[in-house]
Amino acid sequence: MNNSNVIYGINGPVVTVREADSFEMMEMVHVGTQKLVGEVIGITDSLTTIQVYEETTGLRPGDPVEGTGAPMNVTLGPGIIDNIFDGIERPLKAIEEQSGAFIKRGARVSPLDEDKLWNVTVTAREGDELKGGDIYAVLPETPIIEHRVMVHPRLSGKVIKAMPDGNYRVNDTICVIEDEYGERHDLTLCQQWPIRTSRPVKERLTPSIPLITGQRIMDTLFPIAKGGTAAIPGGFGTGKTMNQHQLAKWCDADIIIYVGCGERGNEMSQVLEEFSELIDPKSNRPMTDRTVLIANTSNMPVAAREASIYTGITLAEYYRDMGYHVAMMADSTSRWAEALREISGRLEEMPAEEGFPAYLPSRLAEFYERGGRAEVLSGGEGSVTLIGAVSPQGSDFSEPVTQNTKRFTRVFWALDKSLAYARHYPAINWINSYSEYFNDLDPWFRENLGDDFIEYRNRINALLQEENSLMEIVKLIGADVLPDDQKLVIETARVIRVGFLQQNAFHADDTYVPLEKQKLMMKTILYLHSRAKEVVDREIPISAITKLGLFDKLTKMKYDIPNSKPEMFDDYIKDIDEQIGLLLGIGGSADGN
Amino acid sequence: MVIDYVGVKEINGSLIVMDGVKGVSYEEIVDIKLDNGTSRQGRVVQIEGERIVVQVFEGTRQISLKNTKTRLMGRPMEMPLAPEIVGRVLDGAGRPIDGLGDIFPKERRNINGTPINPVSRVYPKNYINTGISTIDTLMTLIRGQKLPIFSGSGMSHNDLAVQIVRQAKISGADSTNFGVVFAAMGVQKDVAEYFRKSFEESGVLSRVVMLLNLSNDPIIERTLTPRCALTVAEYLAFELDMHILVIMTDMTSYAEALREFSSSKGEIPGRKGYPGYLYSDLASLYERAGMIKGHPGSVTQIPILTMPNDDITHPIPDLTGYITEGQIVLDRALQGQGLYPPVSVLPSLSRLMKDGIGEGYTRGDHQALANQLFASYAKVIDARSLASVIGEEELSPIDKKYIEFGKLFESRFVNQGFNENRSIEQSLDLGWELLGTLPRSELDRVDDALLNIYYKGKEG
Predict the structure, then answer these.
(1) What is the pTM of this model?
(2) Contact status of A49 with chain B (Cβ, < 8 Å)
């Protein structure tokens, strides 16, 4: 390594070095006397360009720049879960201990706790042939997550020494393997991986299992697969973050990676607080036992914000390789795109649309392609589901980040300002949103919930579409002039909107609704609709039905029927039958008059 | 070793370029002496070998290529701080202008501050009672929050800010540990004077730090004003354990100053000519609100911005809304009807509200009532747009009820006197009273138990 490289120019987070030929593209470097972390992002024969992940105030020309000889890496090993990192995998709690409540520059902390002893069970035996991705030791990382220590994907060989079971630190040698060239490698509990390179898998699988979120509109109308990709676009105040929190809390992934990329500090402290108090219903353990947080708030350095997304996805892939289903929430990818734009501007690159660099689409594609369900190297199955929030400028979905994200994601949960203004949450617009996973997931739904689930979903969807076109007329001339059968559509659609699509994240039962209850809710609403249709077909005025209060009763069933008592739906059906039956009886005679 | 560099190489807008400068550090402060004896301050904003670009805070007027001596100060821009700063009036770069002499500093702090570690933050939960019905009930201000007022030229945002300062009751704050930091950026002398007078009348003037960069003051200085103000606020809050309310007006002028600086530096412009880093730059200001573990003090921000052409999708309000924890939006139509404060209820929001209200903070029914008021008022807007097409006469009876509710809501709930201080109970009760004009079956956001207690309509 060449130690004679010094800073030549400084402009914001971008630092240049003149006449250096020892740097590699994307190499991690240490800049200045405080050894700020940076990355090489451009090389010409006269000038090397470096983006620095920390504030550059106070740097001087002539300060040293040292290469590390390796690309921007993260350390992967036990201790990641239940931790909170900044954008370049520095644990924020350790930084707090070192420098107090305000983050000082040049903090040098190791990503994982190097002193903690882990109770390791060594599964490899001397003489075993191990290849990349094979598991050679396991340890309980948290009470619910077993950490499976894997051979680095680029290593393989024969185990010539395996330590006995016992307590080890992350950097202790567990195994020694000898590769085909006779070279020996010490295997510890951790490994390094460059954040911008995706980790290899054996084979990609089609995403055919849904990620169950317990959120009705997401599960039934716009489902996402495990290993799928989704975008949540919405202007400010439409509830992107709220939706991301709900997903992180309730989706049935094994591990959650939550990346707060350029978002609010108070929001991150809320996540920290809520997740440690919240008990996961499946494991009865705090949410934090399966969660990793990456917090690079909007006032933290912009280059680290750009890296935070890659750090997050690399951690996600690492746990996928152990055979887990991982869901990564990125809030928000627009901030990441803006970081790209900011750095691109400092490099004086030719801007494309709206000042974003021309490579924005390819970067987005690279990121979303790292999601997916796969057979992992050790033979099991794992997945990475990517859910990215998008904050469109001026709430305009035609801006480049939203449009390009749309191309590379297959679920689009469009948040709607007018729904949010009316406090209809989740404010997902059912007309503009879509999911491309129906074909992949329908077999699963058929098998686990029956054919009728899909039928209900389609009918609910059709009613909402019909209401949408009717509302065009209503907006012009009012609802009174519609014929009764169309009024019925509007009434039922209201029940669907208020009673089914609206979901209260602060209500103990309503915050997470099992699929079975979702199905029964749809069934009951549709049942009332078809019975009411009978009444209307007999030319009995619709007001006779609305007077019964059945529609209002159904809008409140989400609160009135506890998740644990699905049998109560039978009473609802019975009640509908009785009341409508009565009406049909009376109505019949009224017809005769 | 101190070297004076004589002359400059290039002058462009507020920037000067110098060559042959050695040992300079990024963002260092420089002192520029002109031949006529005056001196100016500047900051190093770009370095390329020995060529540096310096931003001159007071502007480059009268600077020639030869008539300056520039000295590197060897430190970044710092703010002198002492407890005695409370009650002082400073210029936009933090220098006293009230004739009471220099501040004898206990310490100096870099005005850029450093980011608060997210794990050290305390999640804000204590509400601030402002005595204004719309704000307290529907977009509750929380201690440690940043809640901007989105306004337009000619609207009563200044009155609203003054009323908030006068009436705000922060739990845990009293006359000994409550303070206001007021940063004026590019506002007119009259406006600054109005604020000063109002502070005086409400008896808080001795607890206010004012930083004034008026509309005729140098534009580049304006980019420093909020940073100096927040450095003062952080010092008072986290060193002296005070509860600080920071009012920054007008953020639009600030952003425009930033744009001017950026374009004279020849940077690639982003949206509407604003620099690509506008988001990060605004965030570095707004994110300095909050509370920290182990410190009783707090920084609450109320930035005021005038939306150009009342356009909420303009980059400044747009990016601000993505950083701040909600917004209070003022509406010209309401203002036109003579309502005060003209708060447009539907687009306004407080993100921290949900955890700071309810049992133990305000009252158990608060959240449900707020949801219902929002939902019902949204229906008022629908009914009005329908009425504008088919006429009010043709509306269904229920839509007519909504029109009626809308009128009452605006004239009694939104509208309130400049000196009227309503308690939270009064505001909540008023909300229920107005909801009583709607049939009970329309109140679908409130459960029956609460309706039984609070519903005041005729229907049972």
Answers:
(1) 0.90
(2) no
